[in-house]
TrEMBL record:
Needed cofactors: Zn(2+)
UniProt GO molecular function: histone deacetylase activity, NAD-dependent; NAD+ binding; NAD-dependent protein demyristoylase activity; NAD-dependent protein depalmitoylase activity; zinc ion binding
Cofactor note: Binds 1 zinc ion per subunit.
Residues the record lists as binding NAD(+): 83-87, 93-95, 165-168, 258-259, 320
Protein family membership: Belongs to the sirtuin family. Class I subfamily.
Protein's name according to its UniProt entry: NAD-dependent protein deacetylase
Domain Deacetylase sirtuin-type: 55-334
Gene3D superfamilies: SIR2/SIRT2 'Small Domain, TPP-binding domain
Domain of life: Eukaryota
Length: 391
């Protein structure tokens, strides 16, 4: 059992007694916490509102949650996700050693790995970012069962909002509509000129990236950047405007595939009201040890599934896809979800194949044109180069 460090050190007393009695330290910290709660308009799980101390349902386990969902239902579900929901699509997790993105950056000769996502560096030297973007370009990957589970929630009218840290656009590819999405760290879906702010489409950007050129604005010739949030940039406006409304309404928060280490995203978990059930689906237990001063300044006590005072937090430890499939099975949605995945993957695979074919045709046409112009200029042709061109 990993309990959050508390301010009360008296182990011989009953915990409730100790809390009721309190200490000067408790009082001071309570005052500080209340101050920040009010200033930042946060709802903390420690607030003693009506029913806040009552369990959401008797059996606080994954099975108990599924039973409660089947019998009582949820109406306003928020999903909150990180890289873990995309790893089974083949997209590397930034932070996993070995498979991580940062490990693949050596070839770009960066001053330090994170420079590739820093505005100052990008403005001087955008080429490494676009080379990496080509490697990781969304559209070469299919959404995962976890993405389609969220889409199913939407189709059933249960999805209030999907908050994602991912920039891979797999939510959009999975068919989750724009108004349901908060892409907290931005997206490749839209692109803007850094000079005049002209908007460019994903298709336009894709063509530029795959032709190995640094995309520049047709009007002012400045570099055009995908709307993913770089270090030193603000998060999208939706991230600041929607949570206050959403998290008050939310009755089930599903947190998937995130280490809950990146702020301010991680602190969203504490925006949920005291009665909102929170389900973590992740390979490891996270979000349950927000002790120390950080807890008081940034957020509430975190997820309480290992705490005897838990009233509504549940952890499913395993892969996101397995967790979603287990939920679907328990809710009687398994066939529907499998059908949806099968149908959508077939459609996307066909689209990708058509797109590759088109690109190959265009490339061979360009190569032919180049060869023709070489011949008309009557340059001496190096047979080695000619061979390379033809490949
Ligand atoms: Zn421009």
């Amino acid at each position: 059992m990993s309990e959050r460090p508390t301010t009360s050190q008296n182990k011989t007393k009953d915990e409730n007694e100790a809390v009721a009695e309190g200490t000067d330290e408790d009082t001071t910290m309570d005052a500080i916490r209340k101050f920040f709660t009010q200033k930042l308009n946060l709802v903390t799980t420690l607030d003693e509102e009506d029913g806040a101390n009552k369990k959401a349902f008797e059996n606080l386990t994954f099975e108990g949650l599924c039973d409660h969902w089947k019998s009582k239902g949820f109406k306003n579900i928020i999903t909150m996700v990180g890289a873990g929901i995309s790893t089974s699509a083949g997209i590397p997790d930034f932070r996993s050693p070995g498979s991580g993105l940062y490990d693949n950056l050596q070839k770009y000769n960066l001053p330090h790995p994170s420079a590739i996502f820093e505005m100052d560096y990008f403005e001087e030297n955008p080429q490494p970012f676009f080379a990496l973007a080509k490697e990781l370009y969304p559209g070469s990957f299919n959404p995962t069962p976890s993405h389609y589970f969220v889409r199913l929630l939407h189709e059933k009218g249960l999805l209030l909002r999907h908050y994602t840290q991912n920039i891979d656009t797999l939510e959009r590819i999975a068919g989750i509509p724009d108004d349901k999405l908060v892409e907290a760290h931005g997206t490749f879906f839209t692109n803007h000129c850094l000079g005049c702010r002209k908007l460019y489409s994903m298709e336009w950007m894709k063509e530029q990236i795959f032709s190995d050129s640094v995309p520049t604005c047709e009007d002012c010739n400045s570099v055009v950047k995908p709307d993913i949030v770089f270090f030193g940039e603000n998060l999208p406006e939706k991230f600041y405007t929607l949570p206050a409304k959403d998290f008050n309404k939310c009755d089930l928060l599903i947190i998937m595939g995130t280490s809950l280490e990146v702020q301010p995203f991680a602190s969203l978990i504490d925006r949920a009201g005291p009665k909102c059930v929170r389900l973590l689906i992740n390979r490891t237990k996270v979000g349950n040890d927000f002790g120390g001063i950080g807890a008081w300044f940034m957020m509430g006590p975190g997820l309480m599934f290992d705490n005897p005072k838990n009233t509504r937090d549940i952890a499913y430890i395993g892969d996101c896809d397995d967790g979603c499939l287990a939920l679907a099975e328990a809710l009687g949605w398994k066939d529907e979800l499998s059908e949806l995945i099968k149908r959508e993957h077939q459609r996307l695979n066909k689209e990708n194949a058509d797109c590759k074919e088109k690109r190959a045709k265009e490339k061979s046409k360009t190569d032919d044109d180049e060869k023709e112009s070489d011949e008309t200029e009557e340059k001496p042709v190096d047979p080695k180069n000619k061979e390379k061109d033809a490949v």
